[in-house]
Amino acid sequence: MLYALLKLLHVFGVLLWVGGMLFAHFFLRPSLAVLEPPQRLALMREVLQRFFAAVVVAVLAVLISGLGMLDMARRASAFVWPAAWLAMTAIGLLMMVIFGYIRLTLYRRFVTALDAGELAVAAAALARVRAWVGANLALGLFVVAVVLLA
Ligand code: HEM
User: Fold this and answer.
1) Chain centre to alpha carbon of residue 94
2) If we measure between CA atoms, which residue out of 149, 135, 150, 147 comes closest to residue 66?
3) Ligand 1 mean position to 10 CA, how many Å?
4) How many A from CA of 121 to the centre of ligand 1?
């Protein structure tokens, strides 16, 4: 029962994180063209601030539940890491490092430039956020495919 609850928490975290990236990448970003550049940047500042706060919670949920399930599996039997779990853990940790870079370096650079009125610098930082979110999205979809197909 505890294991099932941890897995539910894990999958909810993944849904929020990967689903949010999918929405931002394929639906929100292409729609920004209807706004003038200053409004685009202002909207993305608000959207990303809220989304990244939610991703912090999702990352904690994915990490704690994932480690909890690993620990329960390890105690239950002579545990040999399934290759798919190993890949999920390694790529999951990489995704978390990338998220940290996006949130703590790129997003801060974006906000600082916006506050200073340096729109070109802000747009360049946002383009890098977009590229790294795209990379994390690809990694997340790959992990889900590996775990469900293994
Ligand atoms: C440090 C990071 C992570 C750890 C330690 C971890 C660990 C685990 C463990 C132990 C399970 C249970 C597997 C089972 O009972 O069959 C699981 C399930 C799952 N994980 Fe992760 N995981 C991590 C990150 C991720 C990430 C980043 C994703 C996707 C982006 C992900 C997607 C899933 C999915 C979809 C399941 C459900 C699989 C199923 O029930 O068939 N995990 N994870």
Assistant:
1) 11
2) 147
3) 7
4) 37
Atom 8, ligand 1: residue with shortest CA distance = 66
Q: Could you state, in order of their start, the residue ranges of all structural domains in the chain? A: 2-149
The percent of residues in the chain predicted with pLDDT above 90, rounded, is 94
85 C-beta closer than 6 A to ligand 1? yes
Over residues 27-73, the pLDDT tens digits come to 999 999 999 999 999 999 999 999 999 999 999 999 999 999 999 99
Tokens of 80: 């040999």
Question: What's at 50, amino acid-wise?
Answer: R
- Residue 112 CA to residue 41 CA, distance in Å, equals 12
The backbone region for 117, taken as left when phi is positive above 0, alpha when psi lies in -120 to 50, beta otherwise, is left
CA distance 135 to 141: 10
148 lines ligand 1 (CB under 6 A): yes
